[in-house]
Amino acid sequence: MNTPAQTPALKKILPEISIQSGRPSSEITLSAEAQQDVHQAYLVTLRQRFKTEINRLTQGDMQEMLKAHSENAHDLSFMMTYVYALNWLQQNVHSEFQQEVLAAFTNGPQAFLMQMILQSTNTAEFITAYISYWENFQGEPQLQQQQILALLQRADDRQQLVNHIENTWNKLQLFSNSFTPDYFARGYKDIARQEKQRYAGMLAEEDKLRLKLIDALPDVSSLNFFNKLGLIPAMGCPQTCRHCMFVFRPLMKNTDDPDTLYQMVDKLTTSVLFTGGDLTKHLDHFYNAITHMQHVTTFAILLNGDFADSRDVTENILSKMASAIRRRPLSWPKANVHLQISFDEFHQEVVVDRKGNLKERIPVVKIANIVETAPKYNDEIQLCLCHKQSHLNFSMDVFKKGVFARLAKELARRGHQVQVLSTAPSSRLKRNPHNPQTPAQLIKDATFILTKYPQALLMLTSSTIDAYGRAEMMALHEAVNERDLLKQMLAGQGTGAETFDNDLMFWFNGWATLFSAVHICLGNVFEEGMQTIRQRQAKDPLSNAMHRFDIRLLDFYREVRDDLDAIIEKSTGPHHLFHAITEDGAIRLHLTERLIDSGIL
Ligand code: SF4
Q: Which one of 39, 214, 254, 573 counts the least CB within 10 Å of its CB?
């Protein structure tokens, strides 16, 4: 453990911090057909990524990178794209599948390049083979041939050209610094360290001073009822999805008596969300909350679906949720469970181990268990699949390809037919990461059924990925982002209906943090009482300014830090930017002081 020195009082508030376990998820055995789908999904995804890399580089990115290192950038860029392709393939595709991945490209004009890539064991071998190919080429004159002949003319001899190209490639440092497992391991470790530091700064001296400033502001006379409140029974997840917003999570010292918290929250909202990571081992809390919170009518829970090992296990868990709903006294308002299950190209990403075994992070078969079971509890449970937007969302391909298609195939094997009833677009145009030139309409929400249960509407809703946590290591072109909205906000044109969500999440250790920012804590509800937390939530100038994406915060940030431009450059949207500039307790204090001094309350 490596937490900063704490005062005794602070020790009492701060929970012990430890890195999550990383234990593997429960393994299930897939049918031969399902395993074949996984194999196919792996090939399709890798082919798509390979193609996207080639397109990106041939459309100008490689020439741009080469300009800084060679006078021959124009003549080199095509060949260097395929040097990149060779290295990309060797880094990203298990040797057992390289031939299969490239098989899809062996019929077109670039077929000879695919052969060359597969036959080359290293960069120099590929460059030599490429030059020889064009030296001996007998067909119609080709641009790539002219480029190589021009380069040969400028070189002393063939070997000197090979050396020059290899040196230029090495100078680009594209694979020495990135994409290697070691690069990711180091990157994740760094991010974990920062996240640990961030949690340690929560309610530390600067935050305490900040809360004092908020408490000194005049109280708000009538406090709002909340649209929703969050409950976090535990923080942690054994999975390691590449897009996850967390690498590190604190180990919480939880209350033995969550009912006290339920009773406080029950007076303030009709809708709660249980979240925090993988809550499979904390479902009893959820069932209890349903039977203890009289006024709450929507009990949402966000799960990654990993619990659904079999149809029986799934049936058991969903039936407990439904029976908790039925056990509520008849005189209480009717309530429902909103079962939100993560389901997308990232949670169901196919990964390969050293031996070449393919496996989904969370198998589609488990999601099929949930989709198949939920309609039986239509009166009590509303299922919603929560999907991260990808290139597929830009057309009905989102249902015909990728994980949704795998789900439909698995359900078909069980005798079910999936029917998509309606789709709804995002309110804003977004950029397809595979074709980012022009913003386009994207399918955000959908309703579907299993035809056997036509009354049971199943939902799918999608959202973007911000580059927090593990997602910081993803390439920008891997996911849909909100950079256009960020530009609009920075140009002073606001963010439309988009707000930074400053409703409250209550952790089972008492922390009260914001929905959109688990690092901004307004105190400990068990130690300071709900009234104090509610007053702070209503009065806090910082979270209120964040809520409306007030860009004056950026000016205040710049007064004490000189890295704003670098942060903006990396930000994937307004949320990410406002998250990044408030991660440090000293900055939160400064921003709060400046807002109060300027009368921005
Ligand atoms: S994205 Fe969800 S399932 Fe994946 S590691 Fe994060 S919390 Fe776990």
A: 39
